Fold each of these.
Amino acid sequence: MNLIILLLPILAIVLMFRSQKKRQQQMQQMQTALEPGAGVRTIGGLYARVKAVNEETVELEIAPGVVGYFTKSAIAAVMDPADYDAIINGRPAEDEPVDAADAVDAEIEPAAAEPLSFTKDDAAKGDAKAEAEGGAPASK
């Protein structure tokens, strides 16, 4: 009985170190698999495309013409091209049906008859109009 009490914590410690080592090996493999053109997600949740891979750093294109420099350890995941494209461009997966009603909702509504204005005179007119309709006037 005393032997089990002594061996159980030792076994738990060995298993923890083993799983940590496995995670480190997976992270090392992912970092060595980085190549220009791959879509990645950083530990901060930033999605970008790899421009260049150096010894310790990675150049990521965050937006067209915008390049940031990150350490390799800041890369959380290398993404599949289809997944990266779906996240960045907002495209639905190929197996999701697109309803015609969704397409109608996506149409742009016509602009309001009165253009927006930010002058003081127009604000006073808007206050008078709001009071006439029973609404509260805008704060000044």
Note: The chain has two domains: 1-32, 33-132.
Amino acid sequence: MAEGHHEPHGHDVSQGGAPQGSVRVDSWIWCVRLTKTRSLAAAAAKAGHVRVNGERVKPAQSVKVGDEVRLFHAGRERVVIVSRLLNKRVGAPLAVQAYVDNSPPPPPRTEALAMGVRDRGAGRPTKRDRRELERLRLLGPDFRRNTD
């Protein structure tokens, strides 16, 4: 026991609670704070929104150091490379050390708001409303640039 303290489940604790070998993908996604709950991570995997090294995976699929994990969650794709395995949820400063983030930058908030937003309960858009929304979507950021 001088070489590192062991937990009852056989995970080596000498690395700050990080197990050796592999961890479930849903657990790891939750531990590194890519989702708020483990059940959300499992649901994303079941729905096919999680890929490990390009393959769709089930929630119990194992991840290892060096694996590429792609998660589509909350309207955004996250692409991360596993650099450390975790089996317990950790604080944000430690969580970001467990992966290398290669995700594309999120879209600017102003761009998301510029899409035509309808009032809740306004009903089905008329043909005229629909055409106006479609025009705004097609013009998108170009429309705002031309207003200078």
Note: The first strand starts at residue 23 and ends at 24.
Amino acid sequence: MTEVRQSTLSNFPRVMSDNETEIPIPNENAPNWALQILERIQNLESLQRQPETTLDQSEDKYITERDPLRDLQTYPEILEALPSIKEDFFKLSLTDIQKRRFLATCPRNKDMEYDPPILNEVRLSYNSRRMGSQLVDIQYRLSGITRPIDFFTHNLIQNERKINFEETKDFVRIMQILLADIASHITQIRVENMYKSMGGQGKAPEVSGNSNKKRAH
């Protein structure tokens, strides 16, 4: 049976593939098993011919390649533009006065719903209600940082879509600080929950110097 297959394939005319492999061309009298083999070979050849994707190699001297990611090295100009970039992102909380100062420069969006939805917590346990309250507070804080985003977009449209460097730098600085404040707030919640679960009495340790947890917008 093997000899018959070899002799049948040897009678087919041949062409060269992209990788210098001879592929026989079937004729009308070719048996089904030969056509199936040729079809599989052609499928493999088509997969091999697919172009390989190449990564864009940046020539920025401040970008260090790391497989498969890249690291941004800080330098004097970026540290001057973003002083908080070297701070502990998860322990950089703001006081209420600082948050109000940030948000006071950005008007509330009239069409934006800043208050999280209210859920029925009648049959929930104390721990579940407490966790729900913590998540609601996080949602409320997140809704607040949309205000500088909306206001920046408004200014961009009003200025005929021309980007001002100083305004853009201020916007980026504000967003980074507000996001770090929320991340720090979540860190504090984790500490408090762990402290309670271990049977700690009194107030849980603070991850930063800010002990004020009132909503600021």
Note: Residues 2-48 form one domain.
Amino acid sequence: MGVCWGPVLRVLVLQAAWALSGGQVRYSVPEEAKAGTVVGRLAQDLGLEAGEPEARRLRLVAQGRRASVEVSGASGALVVSSRLDREELCGKSAPCALRLEVLVERPLRVFHVELEVTDINDNAPLFPVNEEAFTIPELSLPGSRFPLEGASDADIGANAQLSYTLSPSEHFRLDHQENHDQSASLALVNESSGPRDDGCAPFGGDGE
């Protein structure tokens, strides 16, 4: 009875190819970059000569998450193929690093590519509700605090910094404090002890 070694040998060769690491190349690209944007000269950075990317079938072979990039034909450049949304890919995690694997043939080699998707200020801050009413005792003491729920921003770092403004009021001021644990507290603070006829003070938030 004959034994067929073909499929087994192909599996062994493929496993050996995956074990050969050609080092790691790192690139970065801003989210929302247009399709066709060149992320990096991949073939050149891997040491391939002109004509080799096609001859050796340079290509992406594995992506842990949808990366929205591809290798461009003869040039061997890594280019954006579809919309990159950092928040969709990584949420609030920073840095947002996608790990790709690139294969070349003759001889078989695997290269590891890390692509960092950097944040841009593309999200507006949002309050949990558009309008909120407060019942405040008319004779509340000066310095009395009335907690407010602040806005949230899907961006990260400096793009997620928020500032708040309060409409002009002689009775209230807005107190916004950043805490050591990177959380923030927001409150209306009573500034007067006399009778007043404005039961609430509108305020707003802006992303910087």
Note: The radius of gyration is 28 Å.
